[in-house]
Design brief:
CATH topology: Tachylectin-2, Chain A
Strand content: 35-45%
Radius of gyration: 17 Å
CATH architecture: 5 Propeller
Order of helices and strands: EEEEEEEEEEEEEEEEEH
CATH class: Mainly Beta
Largest sheet: 5 strands, antiparallel
CATH superfamily: Glycosyl hydrolase domain, family 43
Structural class: mainly beta
Number of domains: 1
Strand order of the largest sheet: 6-7-8-9-10
Distance between the termini: 30 Å
Number of helices: 1
Length: 224
């Protein structure tokens, strides 16, 4: 995202969000101006901060407006059309997936949703979502059966009384199964920590409407 102005805590405005890609494992990056989403004059475009998940031939795009207080909405695009703004469809609820510019997208999670991170958990056949709830001063999670929901109620995995000035909970891509690794930042010391949380077994079973195998302890290999 291109930040236009930083306001009070948790609030800022953006010029646009965009995509850059690398063909050499991150040594160099190519910016794609035609893939940019320019913000609205009222600074309420719903996809200024996004989390991408590639699954079943699509890239699912979970988005929020600038800042940390907006709702989360959902778009999708064929994986080979990621840079083509006209190829995107938006989840509108009753009318399903529809083309448009994102303004027609229906919230899938009510705000405040900040610094959203989403992953498809292949071991559980479920979706995991992590974000900062600025009002509660906590990083929270939800589990969903599909990208459109239903999503579980949010549950707290890290809170300000234990981790002052926390923000930016992002799921590590190696996470799979019940053990979820994530990075968490703290403004107070401006440091990033690697964290781990175990998903509640009963909640996962309820969300996906089936009983997954009993978790055999930590099922994630040690991270390098």
């Amino acid at each position: 995202m291109s930040v236009k102005h930083f306001g009070p805590a948790g609030k800022w405005t953006t010029n646009y969000s965009g995509i850059a890609y690398s063909d050499d494992n991150g040594q160099t990056w190519i910016d794609v101006p035609r893939a940019r989403r320019h913000n609205t004059p009222s600074f309420d475009d719903p996809f200024q901060m996004v989390s991408y998940v590639r699954h079943d031939g699509y890239v699912y795009v979970f988005g929020t407006p600038n800042g940390r207080f907006g709702d989360a909405r959902l778009a999708r695009v064929p994986a080979n059309g990621l840079l083509d703004r006209a190829a995107y469809e938006y989840w509108t609820g009753v009318t399903g997936w529809q083309p448009g510019n994102g303004r027609n997208a229906t919230p899938i999670i009510p705000g405040p949703v900040g610094e959203l991170s989403v992953q498809y958990n292949g071991a559980l056949h479920a979706w995991t979502m992590m974000y900062l709830d600025e009002s509660a001063g906590a990083i929270t999670m939800r589990v969903g059966a599909t990208p459109t929901g239903p999503w579980s109620p949010e549950f707290v995995i890290a809170s300000a009384p234990h981790y002052p000035t926390l923000y930016g909970g992002y799921i590590h891509p190696a996470s799979d199964g019940f053990d979820i690794y994530f990075t968490m930042s703290q403004f107070q010391n401006y440091n990033v920590s690697l964290m781990r949380v175990r998903l509640p077994f009963n909640l996962v079973a309820t969300v996906i409407n089936q009983i997954p195998p009993e978790p055999p302890g930590s099922i994630i290999p040690d991270l390098p």
